Inverse folding.
């Protein structure tokens, strides 16, 4: 199928691939799919897990904003943010391909179905502010050869990040006959029961896993002081329950 974006990351000899399938843009409240593939061009590689998540980032041009005391400092280390950026939405990570060994010439493949929560602002690039979204795949890997220690002493990480173009959309009203969904984001993982030979894909069985994200009214207080304010005041208004970014649903 046609992919909007494909990103490759390498931790020798593992190659991690992440691609957005079938669409050129996504709409909050509607499903879309991401394909995650891990393959080896050398020896066997142990994969502890591949974590899949999404996030939205707002960036303001610092020259247009009067900094406050709390926002004058640079973002904290490890946040993945540049100066003037902050998260406007961020999901928990869903783990796929847990505790598998990728043999040379074989492919471990997972299709992940994702639904962004309704009410998110669309992607935007302006002179003063911009809003961007990304899917991130992170694989924790180790050598799986006979000489390697078992369990591994250290793990290396491969990162692949795919940009998402998000459309503006009205709040999606759930149909009455629809099975109730988690408040926030839904993740569904379609995975092969065993690694498949490259390049032909194998048949998949569907596994459901839910990931909650913060409702709109709770986004503002949980963003932290990484940026000097936001023009997206609508994100911090409206009636919604809950608070904080949640974890996996039961």
């Amino acid at each position: 199928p046609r992919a909007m974006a494909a990103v490759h990351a390498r931790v020798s000899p593992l190659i991690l691939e992440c691609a957005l399938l079938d669409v050129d843009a996504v709409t909050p409240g509607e499903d879309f799919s991401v394909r995650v593939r891990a393959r080896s061009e050398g020896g066997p590689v142990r994969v502890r897990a591949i974590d899949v998540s999404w996030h939205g980032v707002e960036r303001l041009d610092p020259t247009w904003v009067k900094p406050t005391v709390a926002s004058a400092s640079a973002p904290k280390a490890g946040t993945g943010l540049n100066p003037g950026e902050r998260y406007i939405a961020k999901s928990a990570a869903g783990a796929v391909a847990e505790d598998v060994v990728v043999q040379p010439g074989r492919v471990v493949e997972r299709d992940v179905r994702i639904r962004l929560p309704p009410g998110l602002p669309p992607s935007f690039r302006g002179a003063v502010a911009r809003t961007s979204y990304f899917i991130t795949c992170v694989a924790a890997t180790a050598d799986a050869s006979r000489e390697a220690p078992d369990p591994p002493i250290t793990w290396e990480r491969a990162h692949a990040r795919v940009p998402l173009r998000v459309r503006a959309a009205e709040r999606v009203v759930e149909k009455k006959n629809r099975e109730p969904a988690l408040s926030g984001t839904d993740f569904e993982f379609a995975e092969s029961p065993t690694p498949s030979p490259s390049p032909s894909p194998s048949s998949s069985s569907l596994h459901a896993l839910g990931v909650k994200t913060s409702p709109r009214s709770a986004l503002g207080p949980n963003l932290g002081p990484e940026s000097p304010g936001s023009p997206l005041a609508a994100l911090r208004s409206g009636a919604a329950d809950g608070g904080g970014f949640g974890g996996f649903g039961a």
In short: Residues 3-235 form a domain with the Immunoglobulin-like fold (CATH 2.60.40.640). The longest strand covers residues 45-60. The chain has one domain: 3-235.
